[in-house]
Each structure stands twice: as structure tokens, then as C-alpha cells.
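Replying to the earlier thread about multi-chain prediction with a worked example.

Input:
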Amino acid sequence: MKGNRIIMGWFKKKSKQDRKTPSEQKTHKATEVFEEDETVTINMFQESDEGIPGYPAGFQSEPDSGFVRHLRKGLSKTREFLTTDIENLFKSGTTMEDLWEEIEERLITSDIGVQTTMDIMENISKKFPKISNPDQLKAVLKEEIISLLNTQTAAPEKATAKPHVVMIVGINGVGKTTTIGKLAAKSSDEGKKVLIAAADTFRAAAIEQLVIWAEKAGADIVRHRDNADPAAVAYDGVEAAVARGKDIVFVDTAGRLHTKISLMEELKKIRRALSKKIPDAPHEVLLVLDATTGQNALSQVRLFNNAIGVTGIALTKLDGTAKGGIVVSICSTFDIPLKYIGVGEQLEDLHDFDPALFADALF
Amino acid sequence: MFDNLSERLDSVFKKLKGHGKLKEKDVEDGLKEVRIALLEADVHYKVVKKFINDIKERALGQEVMKSLTPGQQVIKIVNDELTKLMGASHEDLNLSGPVPIPVMLVGLQGSGKTTTAGKLAVLMRKNGRKPYLVPADVYRPAAIKQLKKLGDQLDVPVFPSDAKKDPVKICREAVKKARKEGYDTLILDTAGRLHVDEELMTELVRIRDAVHPSDILLVADAMTGQDAVNIAKSYDEILDIGGVVLTKMDGDARGGAALSIKAVTGKPIKFIGVGEKLNQLEPFHPDRMASSILGMGDVLTFIEKAQSVVDEEQAAEIEKKLRKSQFTLEDFRDQMVQIRKMGSLTDLLNMIPGFSKNKQMKNLEVDERELVKIEAIINSMTPRERRQHTIINGSRRKRIARGSGTTVQDVNKLIKNYTQVMKMIKKINKGGMRGLGRGILPF
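Result:
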């Protein structure tokens, strides 16, 4: 191992990169929470599982229900967390301190993050030093969260380019392929001619999975063999789309952890390949995030954005009990709009994200 | 994993040690820091709360506050509680009962079940077992095909499941077939499902009751947030899982989910997935993890990793070369390749006791990109240039830079660093360790 000692000399002077999440920077402002002496058991799942157990039963049985109702269903768990408990809080004559702690717990357990939670609570207590009823509190919380979500007001870009090229990226298992299937179906329904480029040539059977989705969505697919160069697939996809007069191209990419430098370089290469045929392609880079992810989602957004520039986010798996609160932190930290939310496994279970509707569904 | 946490703990400990007498407020301030670090690592709110309360209760007790070294006492309590929370030593897969033994993999969509199934098969085969992969995911498009492909890659047999059949029936038939064909362990890869999906959860119970697996592993993503407790709790209540596999540990997740799941279910984390390659599944050692969080390093893992990649003879050869100051750029590259096989350098450094505590070292963030660059530069040299760096003149530097996709400055830097190190080695060979400057680590 003697030689190793020498090698280390090379890295000695690397300064620490600025990787800190905003929540790491000012952390001493923690609110008082150790006050009461109650012993807490780890059995904390009083949160009722009644209501809507999620999908698919309810979802499939009423495909025609209104959009808001549909969304509400998908988000029922998120809504429950803020409504039921807050009302109970006021009923049982709790003190202000308990109330704040409860709010803190609710916000943190929804993955909003420590720092954003502190910020929200600080803002509320500054603006409204006296809150006396649940409706008021709910309204205030809602307003605060909407304002955080609204930092970006970017209207959905009109797909003017033809073909409009959308690249889909994300870590492993977040639902990229499924999201593409849903997006393709949506575009087909709008009367667009869709082509999918199967540039995930790494994961076993990823191409086959996409072929099935393409069939369901009535889209063309461009595919190569397994382990082919993804950039080549992407290029061929765009070329085919131009030749066949397609309106929109979705480029699937293999899932990759944002910390893997060489794989992020590969993404850049795919991006370059896309722009060879059409200089301003890709017109959109959609990052897919899993709603069950915790604080790491911030790191994912940061690193993907640094590598290839993310223009929008799709948040999947909101039909579970995960609250996806991390998007509030993401929206307030980055200037990247949340565009779609996924609330189930069916083709129609993808919705445009609308902060107002989202917040409405929350409360 | 948890590097932020261990940093915080360390600074808290330092403060506590500084006090002769400990006031209640000192302890509380310290614990507040610990609490935030845990929450930011995605440990569940209630788990954190209990952890902090337990420590506080013990730390503010009479004997601690009155003892001569209250700071030390508090640190010991934190150590104890953290070790308790992490669990004891590694628990292996439960493979008991009559052959063939089924092992069931369950979890949410996208948590990594199918990949884990392939990795487990590799591990079992290494242990002399005859694994049989059984794809039981009839829902996700091409899921069966995915496992079939993995099996072909690994040369592990895969049960020919039919996506139109009931998964329970598939599993039952697979057991029969395994018995007939002499496979001793079945790995059942079930479809991903939400823990609140009653219908699909019932299906898992039916599979379990049909084949009686000796172990049920919940496959969970290391990046899971607060919801990890809900997921683990539901799965455990419905299925009575035997353990957990935490996947995607090779990212920068802080892995608080591990603590949450352990606290809520009491079930051990048995394995962790640390890469996309099919041999990248490692047994999880909670005790080692705890000591690594506490800044005590993880020497055991370090040694194990080193042993797995370092070739004794080669090491002796290198040492000889060093002594004679004949360490060429070629040797340098070989060394680097060997070290990189062990994993991320930052992780490796953190396994060394006291490393994270060393102020000078704390800001040392190894940029893996630099390594790639250095390797590329050396690879772009001719063998003669590698052995005799003095012949590398301006035009050669240009060529090397072009060949390696770097700049001449990069090449210059590398050669400069190399010559400096060579000088240092000469000094050491002459005058022992005294010649060691600031540029080299003290180990």
C-alpha cells in the first residue's frame, strides 16, 4: 500500500465543492422541540388509512371523473395530513406550542425538508402571530406553500418546433419509461404524431418495455440493439422523426445515479447528438423524480441540471402515501417548473401540474 | 452515507468535551444539532424524536451531570444509543427448511427488485448454491423478459413464467420445477406494488402462503424519504418480512431510511446495493456503520476491500521500486487503477479512523474526475514516455493532451506533481520520514 500514500498527494488541495443544500447552511435556527417530556413510542401510524386506499380500483372504475376529483383522489393522502389533524388540534384545546410542533411534524414528515419547514413556520408566525382557528391556519399554510411553489410561473412552452424534441432523464426506477408511455399517449390524443427513441440500451428489457408502451400509445418507436450507443439511437430517432414528419419526439434514457460522472457525461453526449440534426434540440429536458424520495431529490435536481440543463420536472408515484413535499423545496430553490405529476399506472394517470389546482387538492 | 451526520456529531462532541461542568442547555444545544442532521438524512421525524429523548433522559440524569467528565459521559450515551438504533452485527439470509428454499423479494415499483434478484443469484452461486430465478411480475411490461435477460447474462436458469398466469400459480409451479431439476434456492421476483394497494398486497400473502419462503426481503430505495416508515411498516405487518435490502447506496443519499426502517420494524438491513454491476451487492454491517458514523472509521471494511483487490506480489514489487526511486508513471497508473477498484476514494478515506476529524483532511474532497483525467493522460503516453518522463517535451505534451482529451496544462500539472513526489520519495529514502512535507497524507 505504500504507493497509495503518494497518490493521495494529488488530491490534497481540492477544495470542498459547494455542495451544500440550502438547508445545511443555516441550521441553528431550529425551533424548540424538546420541551415536553412525553415519551414517544415509535408507533406513529395513527394516520388513518381509510378514505381512498389509492389505486387502482377506484381509478379504473371511474375514468370519467372530473380532473380535480381525480387529482384529489391521487393526493388524498397528502390532503389528509393537513386537514384532519389540524382540525383535531384545535378541538382538543392544545397549547400554541403543541400546535407549532404538530405543524412542524406534519411538514417534515411530508418531506418538505428541515430548512423549508423552518422558513414556512417562521413566515407564518411573523405574518400571523395569533392564529385562532383551523380554517385560518389552513388558509395561511396553503398560501405559504403556493407562494413557494409559484416562484416559477413559466407558462408551459408551446411546442412550436417540429419535431419538438423532449429528452427524459432521471435516476434508476423513478418511472421514466412509464412516464414516456403516458406522455406519448397524451400527445397522440391531442392529434400529434409521436415518435419514441429507445435510448435506454443498458437496462435489460427496457426497450421491450417501451415497445409495449409505444403500441398502447399508438406511437412509432426507433430502437437499436441492447447496449448500442444511446447517442446513436437518439440521433436516429430525431432523423426518423424529421423524415416521417413527426410532431414530437420523446427520448428515453437509461436511469443513472446523478453522482456517476461518466454516466452524466453520456447524457451530455446524447444531448449533443440530438442537436446535430436540429440545432435547438432538445427543446425540453424532463427530469423524472419519485415522490417517495426524500431530501436527496434536491441533489438529483442540482446535478442533473448542472450536467444537461433541466427544463421541467415530472413527479411520479404520488398515488402512494408519500407526500412529495420535496417539490416545495425544489421549486423554491431552483427555477425549474414542476410540469407533470403521475398518480397511477394507467395511461391516463399523468396530469399537468398546476400550482393552484395542486394546492386546492391539498386542502 | 451519513457523512454530514458524523461531522455534526463530531463538532457537538468537541463542544461537550470543552466543558468542565455541563449545563442542561449545553446538552440540549448539542442534541438540537444532532436532531437536524438526522432529519436532513431523512430519518423519520418520530424516530429522531425518540432517539433524542432517550439520549436526553439519560444524559440529564444525576450521575452524568455530577460526574467528573460529563462531556465524555454524554458522548458515550450517544454512542450507545446510536449503536442500539443501528442494530448489532450482520444478519445473513435465512435459508433454512427443506430444499428447494424460496426467497421472496417484495417492494415498491422501481426500488430495484429485479436487479437485486440477479445480484442475489450471483451471491448464492458464489456460496455454492444453485439458484433459480423466478419472474413473478406479470404486470409491468417486459418485466419477465428483464429477469430472463439478466439470467442469461449470468448463466443462471430462469423459470419460464407466463405473463398471462396468476403469479401464485407461477411460483408454485416454479418450486415444483426446481425440485425436479435440482435447484436448491429460488429467488421470487414479485411485481412492484404500493403498500396501500390491498388487492396486490393480498396477492403477496397468497404467494407467501403457497410456497412458504424461508426469507422475505423488502427491497427499498436508500433515497426514500419520510415515507420509508409507512412502507416498511405496512409490508412488515402484512407479510412479516425477514429483512431489508437497501438499494442505490452508491449515490449520495444519506440513508436515513435505514435507521427509520430498522426502528419501525425491528427487522435488519441484510444487504446493500452499491452499483449497477451484478456483483455489487454487499452484506450490511450495522455495527460497522455505527462506528463509521461516530468517526471511528471502518477499518474492517477497508481491509476487506483492499484484500479483495490488492495483489500481494505486486505490492512488494512496488515497494521495491519506491525504495530504488524507480516508481514510473506506469506504476503510478497501475496503483491508481487498483485503488479505484476498491470504490470511491472519498468513501475509502472516510473508513480511516480519525480521518473525518482531521481538520486538514476535512476539506479534502476527492474529485473522481481528476482520477479519470490522470489515467487518460498516462494512457496517452508511449511506454517509453511513461518510464522516462524527462523526454516529454512540448510537442509530446501537445500530443498527449490531444490524445487524452485534456489540455497541455493538465499534462504539465501531472508531470510537475509526479516529479515533486519523486523528489520527496528520494528524500524519504535518504532521510526517513522527516523529509515528508505537507503534501502527503500521514498514513
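Confidence is low (pLDDT under 50) at residues 1-65, 77-84 of chain A.

Feel free to reuse this layout for your own posts.
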